[in-house]
Write a structure and sequence with these properties.
Elements: E1 6-10, H1 19-32, E2 36-41, H2 44-47, H3 67-74, H4 78-90, E3 94-99, H5 102-110, E4 116-118, H6 126-133, E5 139-142, H7 148-160, E6 166-171, H8 186-194, E7 197-202, H9 208-215, E8 220-224, H10 242-259, E9 279-282, E10 297-300, H11 311-314
Parallel strand pairs: 1-2, 1-8, 2-3, 4-5, 5-6, 6-7, 7-8
Antiparallel strand pairs: 9-10
Helix pairs in contact: 1-4, 1-10, 6-7, 9-10
Length: 334
């Protein structure tokens, strides 16, 4: 099935530093029916420095972790990118990545990376945005933890530097996110404000939020993906397993198909069903000259008789001829 919605399986650090596992994730993503697999291209040194920050948040999955150590654990070794891209191509998947500095962009360009993803926390990295835009490749940018002014500056930066194909993803940068904090009504507003494709980078659990986003105009959905949450991984707690991703793929495409167009009237597919509308029938045998009453005529299915709007007009009229029980009435009967 060709996806109507562009569905991205985000590998992130769920490979747990195993190339074999990374390739298995690609295989599982392809089997689940997604459109693309996405990597993140960085090293701990391209994002932070040792000792710069330790997460102190009891609600965080990474509470107590030093940022440098966390990124060291989560990063995808750059030498893995080529075999991962090749496996994705073999499986009919698009593979692309999120770079976190200019050296990552240079590296990805050598791999003919087809799309650049900008992470929410990089929205204010104006030098990186300029560098990415100048590649001329399509850009998908998440908007989590960003003010409208920051989003506008980022969009203007991208467009002024050559980006002509931009998609903005509504994103809530909490891990996991709650439906209550997702605010999907922002999606059509983003589309209106910035005149671009829109979608959802979804950190909620389950598939309901993603399906709802399609009804509001999302054409791109990104979800973190793992082989098994039980086996762990830096992002596994809010990642989808293969069977869940398969269900997501099926249901968001079904939701998209259901959008259709503004439509009133009788569809071609409904024409044969109009017989089940109601009309006026003789509910009892009626003799010629007998009055039509609520006791001997009735509004029932099917729709072969007079329209129900005439029911009260018929009451009190005399039958012109004998009328059999079960006959659909017409104007010649009275």
């Amino acid at each position: 099935m060709k996806n109507k919605i562009f569905i991205i399986a985000e590998m992130s650090g769920n490979h747990n530093q195993s190339l074999e596992r990374a390739l298995e994730i690609v295989d599982a993503a392809a089997k689940a029916g997604v459109s693309a697999i996405k990597l993140q291209t960085y090293t701990a040194d391209t994002i932070t420095i040792p000792g710069a920050y330790t997460i102190r948040d009891a609600q965080s999955l990474w509470n107590g972790r030093d940022l440098y150590d966390l990124y060291q654990e989560a990063h995808t070794p750059w030498e893995w990118h080529k075999p991962i891209y090749e496996r994705a191509k073999e499986k009919g998947l698009l593979c692309f990545s999120t770079p976190f500095d200019e050296t990552a962009v240079d590296f990805l360009e050598k791999l003919n990376n087809p799309i650049y993803k900008i992470a929410s926390f990089e929205v204010n990295h104006i030098p990186l945005l300029k560098y990415i835009a100048r590649t001329g490749k399509p850009v998908i940018m998440s908007t989590g933890a960003s003010t409208l002014a920051e989003i506008e500056e980022a969009v203007n930066t991208l467009r002024e530097n050559g980006c002509k194909d931009l998609t903005l993803l509504k994103c809530t940068s909490t891990y996991p996110a709650t439906p209550e904090n997702t605010n999907l009504l922002t999606i059509p507003h983003l589309k209106q404000l910035f005149d671009c494709n829109v979608g959802l980078s979804d950190h909620t659990l389950g598939i309901g939020v993603a399906i709802a986003s399609v009804a509001l105009g999302a054409t791109v959905i990104e979800k973190h993906f793992c082989l098994s949450r039980v086996e762990g991984g830096v992002d596994s707690a809010f990642s989808m397993e293969p069977q869940e991703m398969k269900m997501l793929t099926e249901e968001v495409n079904r939701a998209y198909s259901a959008l259709g167009n503004v439509s009133y009237g009788v569809l071609e597919a409904e024409k044969n069903s109009r017989i089940f509308k109601r009309s006026i029938y003789a509910s009892q045998a009626i003799r010629a000259g007998e009055l039509l009453t609520k006791d001997n005529i009735k509004v029932i299915r099917p729709g072969n008789g007079l329209h129900p709007r005439y029911f009260f007009d018929l009451l009190g009229k005399k039958a012109k001829t004998d009328i059999k029980k079960g006959k659909p009435l017409d104007f010649t009967d009275c």
